[in-house]
Amino acid sequence: MDTIIQKIFNSNYRFELLDEWPGVADSEKRFYFPFATLMGGKDGLMIRFYPHESNNWLGVFEFGGGVTTGVYTCPNPDQVCVVSQGNSYIVNVNNPRDYIFRNLGTSGVYQVHKRQLLILTECNGICALGKTGIIWHNTDITDPAAFSVTDDFMKGTCEDCGKSVPFTIDMATGKLIYIGKVN
After folding, report:
1. Is residue 1 exposed (0-12), middle (13-18) or buried (19+ Cβ within 10 Å)?
2. What is the pTM of this model?
3. Which of 7, 49, 100, 127 has the smallest number of CB atoms closer than 10 Å to its CB?
4. Which residue ranges make up each domain of the chain?
């Protein structure tokens, strides 16, 4: 499994991907997502976090049913976005129990530095995360695939009546400004 790592935004933490858990003598807390429990959970992407303002911790992020896997810095420097085979987790690294779980089939993640947005393309639309949380969520389109993301627009294709049609979204508002017609 290839894991994408994108660090466009500043972060108040470091992290490392793990292939296996450290030994039992390890004193770091282990959080299992999607419930941020210390009691154990299902298999997933394993990451060790080194927050600048709190103790190190280990996270296992349950796999979804998709293909996209990656770790992305967020507009909020205390948050990280982990995508584990389509399941998305936005986590405050200083408090792992402060998180957002999105099991909406994330297929793409885009960092828009100028607008300070993290964009998630999901099976039911497109979600934009800013410094204060979710800024907008566009559900006008389903199964979006982006082919161009700029500071101002996202252009791509989506499914409409079984056919692929083009769309354009305004990055500032999340509003659909164009969608092609099915012939």
Report:
1. exposed
2. 0.92
3. 7
4. 4-179
Taking CA 87 as the corner, what is the angle to CA 90 and CA 105, rounded to the nearest 5 degrees?
Answer: 120
Contact status, residue 43 vs residue 78, Cβ threshold 8 Å? no
Residue the block writes with tokens 């039992």: 24
Measured between alpha carbons, how far is 91 from 46 in angstroms, rounded to an integer? 14
Distances (CA, A) of 164 to 26, 143, 156, 158, 168: 50, 10, 10, 5, 13
Q: Convert the pLDDT of each residue in 17-62 to its tens digit.
A: 999 877 665 678 999 999 999 998 999 999 999 999 999 999 999 9
Burial (0-12, 13-18, 19+ Cβ within 10 Å), 116: middle
Cα 43 from Cα 166, distance rounded (Å): 37
Q: CA–CA separation, 26 vs 127, rounded Å?
A: 37
C-beta separation of 138 from 153 below 8 A: no
Tokens 């204060």 locate to: 132
Pull the structure tokens for residue 128: 């934009």
Bridge partners, 67 (sequence order): none
Q: Give the dihedral sign, CA 6/132/60/109.
A: negative
